[in-house]
Amino acid sequence: MSYVRLVDVTKRFGAVTAVDRLNLSIAKGECFSLLGPSGCGKTTTLRMLAGFEDLDEGEIHVGERLLSSKKSGYYLPPEKRDFGMVFQAFAVWPHLSVYENVAFPLRIRKTPTPELAKRVNDALLHTNLLDMARRSPADLSGGGKQRVALARALAINPDVMLLDEPLSSLDPHLREEMRFEIKDLQRQYGFSIIYVTHDQAEAMALSDRILVMRLGVVQQVDTPLNVYTRPANKFVFSFIGLSNFLDVEGDGVNFVTSRGALPLPVAPPPELGRGRVCLAGRPSEIEFADTGLPGMVARKSFLGESIDYQIQVGEQNVRVQKGRHSRGPEQGENCHLRFTRPFWYPAE
Amino acid sequence: MSARGQRQGSGFGAPQIILTLSIAILVIVVAVPVLLILFNAFWADGVFNIRDVARVLTEPDTYQALLNSVIIACGTTAGSTIIGTFFAWLVTRTDLPWKRFMKGMFLVPFMLPSFIGALAWKMLLSPRAGYINRFFMDTLGLEEPIFNIYSYAGIVAVECMYLFPFVFIQVCGALERMDPTLEESARISGAGLFTITSRITIPLVMPSILSGALLIMLYSMAHFGTVAVLGIENGIFNIPTLIYERIHQSGGSFDSIRTGTVLASVLVVSAAFIIWLQNRILGKGRYQIIAGKSFRPMELKLRGLRMPLLVICIAYIAFTIVLPTTVIFLVGGLKTYGLAFTLENLSLDNYKFILFDHKLTRDAIFNSVTLGLSAALITMFAGVMISYVIVKMKTRGKGILEFLGMLPFSVPGSVIALGVILAWSGKFGINLYNTVWIILVAYIARYMAFSLKANSAALEQVHDSLMEAARACGASMWQTLRDIVLPLVRPGMLAAFFLIFLPSLRELTVSIMLYSPTTRTIGVAIYTLNEDGETVISAALAGVALILIITGQSLINRFTQSSSSSKG
Ligand SMILES: Nc1ncnc2c1ncn2[C@@H]1O[C@H](COP(=O)(O)OP(=O)(O)OP(=O)(O)O)[C@@H](O)[C@H]1O
Ligand SMILES: [Mg+2]
């Protein structure tokens, strides 16, 4: 059941294609994240949804409503779209009190006073701001300002909430806390969330589905689990979680290094063929074994919960992480590696 | 070796010398003149006498001048604030065509001396002889002149034209730095562009609007030139022009000095109040609305209003900037004032005359240039030293200097002129009256504020650790200053130099009170020539002054642009 629909949405800034033929449907009540490195077009996508940017191609629908369409040149202005939106820099108005900030969208809609007061108090209650209603948001902490921004977006009880890196101005501890508060609010109000972030942990923790983007092009749209365990390509694999890549050239059994041929731990799938391929594995999914890929411990560091090994394999390095209680080789010792979940990608 | 170490530690090392010197400069140049004014105003007949102050203030002439200063300042402030805010909003927030060009043009009045503008408007709109009025009366047969520039409305209009950039530049800056998501979040909340402008944008930049408005208020209350050119004809005096008139007429009699000091004290007190109010507004009220990383601010689509507003802007620029400037040059080319601007009436003779033959104007140009250069150099170095103590040093007794450093900002030019007359007319054994030196001292006092501002801004950019690192490397304080601090603040010093040199070329308020027949400055020469009815010569000199100022300003713009681009 798709609610928000983007069809072939494209946006160019001069020579840069910020968003390239994006097709997307998001269900009612879903929490959907746009994830990708800086400059990949996440904000642009969100701003097109909000109506701050025109499209160069495509259409955007929400429910039965057409919001933007290049073909018919129709753009519903942002103020008519009835979205809630939270910006990275909070954008709360310092000349209005917390209460008036939250009341603003309702006053614009000429909501009758009793109803307005009820709605504002509701939003303030859900964001733990009731005590601060009369204060100026300029005096609040970062987390407080962000709550005001959320409450203001909640006030009109929107169907869709757009959030552009709403937590990235907060310190890490607060960030984690607010994540859950947003999730709670969604449960209570039932809006859909479209959430922009470049923090993969945030996207994983919050979302029902994640879209991974790179240079304006969609790489994968899937659940957090699938994005992690079944990355669609090498970029997604490297962007989500820690990763290792070994460039490998050989006959499928051994591969060649300056120190002679080394045995491959697993054979590449036949469809990649022979010659140069890329072997990938997560540091936590590589084990020390008696046989397998031979290497030497170049560096061993204690990270607290885990131990981090840098293993030299031929002239390349492989990173391995083990729990702090596990036994492993010491720095300078030789060892063998086994990839428990290997991924193969075509070489670049 | 040990002696050196001791001297550093004991009471009177290099920091104390610098501090004492800085305090001495500010005391002699600014504080003493101001104190003398207050003393003369409140100390009559050997006793502290507030009743006599009241008597002076309630004299009809003085009272009227006070009232006029307030009326003109309020009118000018209101007018300039509206014009400045509106144009600032137009060039930063809308899709008006040629916005960059417009923005540049709206800053031009900053360069133009307002009394020259007043002269131009007198030529255009004086009731009988003004070209525009004559055109309507002779050609169209109107009975009455369409506008009499010798009026409150005329004075306020002319002051607005030259002062609105104070608000314009402040509001432009605030709007450009403002985080656009503040407006976008209002938009997504459902507000249309009109609501956003009136309920979000304007309130957010209100502190900048008010601060610009107060600057204009301060400037206009103590402004001499426009009122002198346009008001005296109809008996409209404000505080500075009345001070000038009294002292000039009586050749500096006791009574005129007394009236002058009382009026000047009023200016000092109002200026102090305005500065205090401005600091309060800026200190408390300025919101943190500065954008971090952001997009281009959203633009209001003017749609149907786009062309009409463009026409209004162009008409405004043509009417208030191009027209008066052109008239100055044209009148400067006429054989006799009042002739029509036809080719046979126009020549370069007046310009040749003032540049090569006329001793008075040649002296005036020479005086202004040498005075400007010396004042700029001295004030630049004094300013960098004083700012250094205020911004960087942790010496005891700095508090006095911080207080003294505020003074130059709040003392208007006419007050300084009167103050230096009191201080340097032989009362303390030194008589500089009727020499160029008294003008130089007054210029230094008048422009110290500019130098302090530019230099402290530059010094604040120099982080303490840079100097500490030099000290840690074994450099003495003097070596640190010479090798580390000076090179880093050089841009600030250069800025200070030009900020002083260019305005001093066109200075009138101070010089008019202090000149003698041989020490006329350009401003004084233009003003007195015009008073003596030598309108065309006066206009030609004004034209030369405009050329000097505009050339200087464009050189600076070129210079600062190339130095900033070579850095980036
Ligand atoms: N108004 C604009 N004018 C020109 N180019 C733009 C504009 N807005 C975005 N771009 C370009 O479009 C591309 C995508 O930008 P966008 O802001 O959507 O990236 P992002 O994924 O949000 O990145 P970040 O994580 O840094 O916020 C970038 O290359 C950017 O430089
Ligand atoms: Mg972004």
Question: How would you describe this structure to a colleague?
Answer:
- The complex is a heterodimer of chains A (348) and B (568).
- In chain A, helix 2 (98-108) runs parallel beside helix 4 (142-154) and helix 3 (113-126) packs across helix 4.
- The relative contact order of chain A is 0.12.
- Chain A has helices at residues 42-50, 98-108, 113-126, 142-154, 172-189, 200-206, 224-229, 234-239; strands spanning 2-13, 16-27, 31-35, 57-62, 65-69, 74-75, 84-86, 160-164, 192-197, 209-214, 217-222, 244-250, 254-257, 260-263, 275-281, 286-289, 293-302, 306-313, 316-323, 334-339, 343-346.
- The model of chain A has no long low-confidence stretch (mean pLDDT 89).
- The longest helix of chain A is centred in the middle third of the chain and has 18 residues, at 172-189.
- In chain A, a hairpin with a 4-residue loop joins strand 5 (65-69) and strand 6.
- In chain A, the strands form five sheets. A six-stranded mixed beta sheet of chain A has the order 7-8-9-3-10-11, with helices on both faces.
- Chain A has a domain at 252-346: OB fold (Dihydrolipoamide Acetyltransferase, E2P) (Beta Barrel), CATH 2.40.50.140.
- With 348 residues, chain A is an alpha+beta fold.
- Chain A is 24% helix and 37% strand.
- With 568 residues, chain B is mainly alpha-helical.
- Chain B folds into two domains: 13-41 and 348-568, MetI-like fold (Orthogonal Bundle); 59-309, MetI-like fold (Orthogonal Bundle).
- Chain B has helices at 2-9, 14-42, 50-58, 60-93, 99-111, 114-125, 131-139, 152-177, 180-188, 193-221, 225-230, 239-250, 254-285, 306-332, 349-357, 359-392, 398-410, 413-423, 436-461, 464-472, 477-505, 509-514, 522-531, 535-567, and strands at residues 43-44, 47-48.
- A two-stranded antiparallel ribbon of chain B has the order 1-2.
- Chain B is globular and about 80 Å long.
- In chain B, 46% of the residues are buried.
- The model of chain B is unreliable at 1-10 (pLDDT under 50).
- Chain A binds chain B through residues 47, 50, 52, 77-85, 87-89, 91-95, 104-105, 108-109, 138, 149, 152, 156, 162, and chain B through 179, 181-182, 184-192, 195, 200, 203-204, 206, 287-289, 291-292, 294-295, 298.
